[in-house]
Design brief:
Number of strands: 12
Largest sheet: 8 strands, mixed
Strand content: 5-15%
Helix content: 40-55%
Number of helices: 20
Distance between the termini: 71 Å
Length: 478
């Protein structure tokens, strides 16, 4: 297939110059730096269990890739990682062999090339030629194989491949179409009640998420923060949220650097604010964040506590994450301890019945933030659920002991999986020797929030609310 003609100096519709890098005379191919960076990031994720959001910036920096090339490499990396399951099905069909029988460096290069062919406005000739050059530099003997596979992929567009490979089972078809494992599709169907709406949620996972900032109350207003950032706007629901235009670089925001704001999804802000906003009889000056790392919710709670003469004990079991919490909450009335949240009543800093408000932001599968973590959907397995749900329920029962009579506990997970949400709450309450009552959380969320359900708990969704899929339950100890 031939790339369309362009005038001198013209760029393709994607905004990046895709003229092919030509091999120096008698030498190896000169690999396009942006595509090479994307390949290296994808390979690091699969070879080293790296995280794309950590490894890609380093690769771009060390390779001197910036501007349009960096944006191209970022889209190519994150898009490839999100679409791995579907790309692998197409690569396997074009190669006439399972992907696990393809040499890993060649397999990752083919994934990167296939993503360009099927998802980006890149000419087929450019996508094929640059990927073949990349393979030749990695595994010289596989260049012909890569060329043949990519040319077969280029014979049809994405919709054509999906039609050719679509399974009869509707859940399996949705998994292929939306690039999610089948077990996650089923979990979304269970939580939402229909495959049609589940597909909207799956679609939302594949969109580039916005960057949300939290303007810390008492230090900065969202209006002030938004006014200082070109194109930024205040959030739709959280009274503390600001949305950066075009994603933006939060590390370049002065208010983030000096501690007046921090990066936090608007849904995370809402669930923390619901705990702080619910009415309480009696004293209200001793709060607890039982699973505080890396410190976003502790930062918001600390800023709210400072306005009300309260203080927060922030607990984190991992030492390095406890250090992150301490740094994130510097200057706020937050006391960070490196401890296990299940040690309530054993640790002198965690006295039973010693806290007025308790947040349990429990470790979970993270299925609610798949749009932000492109590799996570393929790493998580159903076998991850039993140990996580056991830990969630143990932490929640510890919170019931930590809160004083009349106090409140908020249970929060960044997952819509019912085993981690409604079932964890029900089971923890059933097995606890401390009585607790569910409180309808909806009155403590913005009245403008749509589709909040029938209560007493609330599940947020990217496709409904533009937030991560956060779950929140509020419980009171009589």
């Amino acid at each position: 297939m031939r790339s369309p003609r362009r005038g001198p100096g013209a760029r393709p519709a994607g905004g990046r110059d895709d003229r092919l890098a030509r091999p120096p005379r008698g030498g190896r191919p000169a690999i396009d730096p942006a595509r090479e960076a994307a390949y290296e990031a994808v390979a690091a994720v699969h070879r080293d269990d790296a995280y794309a959001n950590l490894v890609l910036p380093r690769i771009l920096r060390e390779g001197g890739v910036s501007g349009r090339d960096a944006a191209f490499a970022t889209e190519l990396t994150y898009g490839t990682l999100r679409q791995i399951g579907t790309l692998d099905a197409i690569v396997a069909a074009a190669a006439d062999r399972p992907v696990d029988r393809i040499d890993p460096p060649v397999r990752d290069a083919l994934r990167v090339g296939a993503y360009q062919l099927l998802h980006m406005r890149v000419g087929a000739h450019a996508a094929v030629a640059t990927t073949v050059d990349l393979v030749r530099s990695l595994v010289p003997g596989a260049a012909g194989f890569a060329n043949a596979v990519l040319r077969r992929i280029a014979e049809a567009d994405r919709s054509g491949w999906l039609a050719r490979l679509a399974p009869a089972d509707p859940v399996a078809r949705a998994a292929l179409t939306h690039a999610h494992p089948e077990w996650i599709v089923r979990a979304f169907v269970d939580a939402l009640g229909s495959l049609d709406e589940a597909e909207l949620a799956l679609d939302a996972d594949n969109l580039r998420p916005p960057v949300h900032l939290c303007a810390r109350p008492g230090l900065l207003t969202p209006a002030e923060l938004a006014a200082a950032l070109p194109g930024a706007s205040v959030g739709r629901y959280s009274p503390y949220a600001v949305v950066l235009a075009g994603g933006g670089d939060p590390g370049a925001v002065a208010a983030v650097r000096d501690g007046r704001a921090h990066v936090q999804d608007e849904g995370s802000q809402l669930v923390a604010a619901a705990l702080a906003g619910a009415p309480l009889d009696g004293r209200d000056d001793t709060w607890l964040d039982l699973c505080a790392g890396p410190g976003g919710k502790a930062g918001l709670l600390g800023a709210l506590a400072a306005q009300r003469g309260a203080h927060v004990t922030a607990v984190e079991v991992a030492h390095h994450r406890a250090e992150l919490v301490a740094r994130a909450t510097e200057g706020l009335p937050v006391y960070t301890i490196n401890a296990d949240g299940r040690d309530v009543g054993k640790d002198p800093d965690l006295p039973a019945g010693g806290f007025d408000r308790v947040l349990v932001d429990a470790p979970c599968t993270g299925l609610g933030a798949l749009r932000r973590r492109p590799e996570a959907r393929w790493r998580r397995q159903p076998s991850d659920l039993p140990p996580l749900t056991r830990l969630q329920r143990e932490l929640l029962r510890a919170a019931f002991h930590a809160v004083r009579p009349g106090g409140l506990v908020a249970y929060v997970t960044c997952s819509p999986h019912q085993a981690e949400t409604e079932v964890s709450v029900t089971e923890a309450a059933r097995r606890s020797d401390v009585d607790v009552d569910l409180v309808d959380v909806r009155p403590y969320l913005p009245s403008s929030l749509p589709e909040a359900g029938t209560g007493p708990t609330v599940q947020l969704w990217p496709h409904r609310h533009g937030t991560d899929a956060m779950f929140v339950a509020l419980l009171r100890r009589p």
